[in-house]
Write a structure and sequence with these properties.
mainly alpha, 3 helices
Amino acid sequence: MFTETVLRRFCAAVGIQFEAEMLTWPPIPADQRTQFLGPADIEAFGRAFEEARESSGFRPHPASSAPPELKDPEVGGVVRATVERARPVYLKLKALC
């Protein structure tokens, strides 16, 4: 599966262990979608946040054709920095499950 391959590579690039449970999640009930998130959290992610909180797993992106090359140290550094910036929001979302 393309998504699993990408996620495994992503995890390896940022130094975290891949777990199959990362591929699916329960959607957040509508009445709880902003319970632990502030307006700044929601604004930071825009429509992507809306789509993520309504989802229950990954879906193919129409432009996807090959996994990104994460072996490039510059790309890996950008990915690690992005993960660290997103970690607080991730932890808030994880607490909803």
